[in-house]
Specification:
There is one protein chain. The protein is mostly helical. It is built from five helices and no strands. The longest helix has 19 residues. The N and C termini lie far apart (about 35 Å).
């Protein structure tokens, strides 16, 4: 899921930068591409996921384009911010893989 969301953000940002020339648009797409790279690597995943969710919602309602693609990327970003990076990520290598054990529910 991280790989798909990160790759989609980077590809969309590069295509938009090549098409658009206003400085504000370029800065926005560079930030989106940076968050996509962080997601792709699994580095600072909760922060990158939250940035992706915010960027996706903002892009969905403020830009002309594919509304559903932006909403999908925003949903993936929010899910990744809540789920975390997973076992195969830079975060897991640096900080260890966190596992939540709910225990026995019979009490």
């Amino acid at each position: 899921m991280r790989l798909v969301a990160g790759a989609a953000l980077v590809i969309d940002a590069v295509n938009s930068i090549l098409r658009d020339s206003p400085l504000g648009s370029v800065i926005q797409h560079v930030v989106a591409a940076g968050a996509g790279v962080l997601l792709f690597l699994g580095l600072w995943t909760p922060i990158a996921g939250a940035l992706v969710a915010i960027f996706g919602l903002w892009a969905a309602f403020s830009q002309v384009g594919d509304l559903w693609m932006h909403l999908l990327v925003a949903t993936l970003g929010a899910a990744l911010a809540l789920l975390g990076p997973g076992a195969w990520s830079v975060d897991a290598r640096l900080f260890g893989w966190k596992r939540i054990d709910l225990g026995d529910r019979r009490h």
